[in-house]
Amino acid sequence: MSTAPRNAAAKRDWGHDESGCTVLHIDMDAFYASLETARHPELVGKPVIIGWTGPRSVVSAANYEARKYGVNSAMSMVRAQQLCPDGAYVNVDMPYYRHMSQRIFDEVFRQITDQLEQVSVDEGYMDVSGALLRWKSPVAIGAWIRQQVAQRFNITCSVGIAANKLVAKMASTNAKPNGMLLIPKAMHAEFVRMMPLRGIPGIGPSLEQRLGAWGITSVADLADMDEASLAQATRSKITAHNLYLAARGHDERRIVTDAPEKSIGSEITFEHDTRNAPEVRELLHHCCNEVTRTLRKKGLMARTVTVKLRFADLSHSTKSHTLERPIDATATMYPESVTLLNTMLGLPKDASEDTPLPHEIRLAGVSASSLSPKEETSVQLTIDDLLGNGDEHGPGGERNQKAIEDKERNGCEGDRSERIRNAETVLDAVRQRYGTGAASLGLEHGDWKDRQIAGNSKLKQ
C-alpha cells in the first residue's frame, strides 16, 4: 500500500480527454493484507497487520481498517500492538505474495501488453499505446484490469492513467483505495501543482527539509523556482533537473521492460543489541549464504560487496569493496564482509573473532552489486593462478619459486574455498528439492535464527 501523501481534492473528475495518455500505473491496495484476507475470509472487516512477532520486528503492511488506528508500515510491532491490541497479526508469507504477484502480472496485466515494467510485487507501469487498436481506450483497459483482479483474486487495485510515469503514479496514489484516475495531458501541471512536496515520488524527509530551508514547502513553490536555484538548494544538478520537470508534470523516463538487476541483499535485525563479534559474524555468514544462493539461482556474478550496520541509536553505516574478480560463493563473499565489518568499526583487518565490538549492533546485512550474467562474465586469472602450476626451475625460476612458496602457504585455503564453492552449488540442488533447512555446510549453524534473531529477515532484490 502506498504511504505517499495525498490530496483529497485531487480525487475528482479531471476531464475525459484520453489523447496521449497511454501510461498506466497499477498499484495493489494493501496487497499483503488483502491477500491474507482473501485466503482467510474470517479476517474480513478486521484490522489486519502483517509482520513477524517479536520486540524488534516492524510492520510490513497494514490494511485500511488497521490504518484507522494509526498503524503504518515500518512501525514497530510493539507500537502497533499498543495502538491496535485487537488487530489480527499475521506472519509475513513472501513466497505466497510473490506467487500471487506473478499470477496477477501474467494472467491479467500481460493479457493487455508486454510493454510492462514491474517495480515491486504490488505495482507496475504499462504502456498501452500498442494495445489501443484492440482496446480503443486507456480507461477501458484500466476498468478491465480492476474488474479482473477483483474477480479472479478477490482483492482490489487502483489505476492511474496519464501521459507519463510520474503523473500516472501520482494519479493511482490519489485514486486509492480501489479507484481509477485519468489525468488528461493538458491537466498534468495543474494536477501536480496542487500536491504536497512529498507527493512527488523521490522526495523524502531529507530532501523535503533541504527544500524547506529555501522556503519551498509545496509543489507550487517548487514550480516557481528556476533550475539554477534548485541546483543550489539540492546541491545536485541531476536532482534539480528532475524536480524542475516534475513540478511541471513532465517526466522523461520510459517504460523499461527488462531492467537489469542492480543488487541483491539480505539483512536481519537482532532480537537484542549486541557487541558479540561471533554473533554478528554468524549473521553475516547467513546473509552471505542467502545472497550467493540467489546469485547462483539467477545465474549472476557480483563484483561489489557491501556491508550495512544499524546501531543501537538507530544510526547506520555502509561500506563497499569492489573485487578484482566476480564472485557468487559464500566462501569468497564472507571473508570480504568480515573485512568490511572490521574496517567500519575501526578494528584491525585481522582482528580476532572474540574481539568485542566497540558499538552495539542492532541490524546487519550484506548486499552484492555490479552484477553481470555468469555466461557473459570473464574471470581474469591472477598472477598467482598463472604461476601456480609453473615449474620452479623453468623461465623466471626465482619468481616461480616464490609463487610456489606462496601457494604452499596460501594455496590450501584457496583450494578449500573452491571446494566449498562447489559444495555450495550442490547444496543449492538439495535445498531446492528438500527445503532450505535440509542440509548445510559444517561452518553453518542451522539454529542461529531461533537463538539470536527477531525473525524479520529481509531478502532485497
TrEMBL record:
Its main location: cytoplasm. The keyword Protease does not apply. Binds 2 magnesium ions per subunit. It is an enzyme of class 2 (transferase). It holds the Pfam family HHH_5. Its cofactor is Mg(2+). PROSITE patterns: UMUC. Residues 386-418 are annotated as: Disordered. It comes from the Bacteria. The record marks 32 as: Substrate discrimination. Mg(2+) binds at residues 27, 122. It is found in: Cytoplasm. One of its GO terms (molecular function) is magnesium ion binding. Residues 390-418 have a biased composition (Basic and acidic residues). It catalyses: DNA(n) + a 2'-deoxyribonucleoside 5'-triphosphate = DNA(n+1) + diphosphate. Keywords: Cytoplasm, DNA damage, DNA repair, DNA replication, DNA-binding, DNA-directed DNA polymerase, Magnesium, Metal-binding, Mutator protein, Nucleotidyltransferase, Transferase. The keyword DNA-binding applies. Gene3D superfamilies: 3.30.70.270, 3.40.1170.60, 5' to 3' exonuclease, C-terminal subdomain (1.10.150.20), DNA polymerase, Y-family, little finger domain (3.30.1490.100). InterPro entries: DNA/RNA_pol_sf, DNA_pol_Y-fam_lit_finger_sf, DNA_pol_Y-fam_little_finger, DNA_polymerase-Y, DNApol_IV, Rev_trsase/Diguanyl_cyclase, UmuC. The active site is at residue 123. GO terms for biological process: DNA repair; DNA-templated DNA replication; error-prone translesion synthesis. Its EC number is 2.7.7.7. Belongs to the DNA polymerase type-Y family. Poorly processive, error-prone DNA polymerase involved in untargeted mutagenesis. Copies undamaged DNA at stalled replication forks, which arise in vivo from mismatched or misaligned primer ends. These misaligned primers can be extended by PolIV. Exhibits no 3'-5' exonuclease (proofreading) activity. May be involved in translesional synthesis, in conjunction with the beta clamp from PolIII. Monomer. This is DNA polymerase IV.
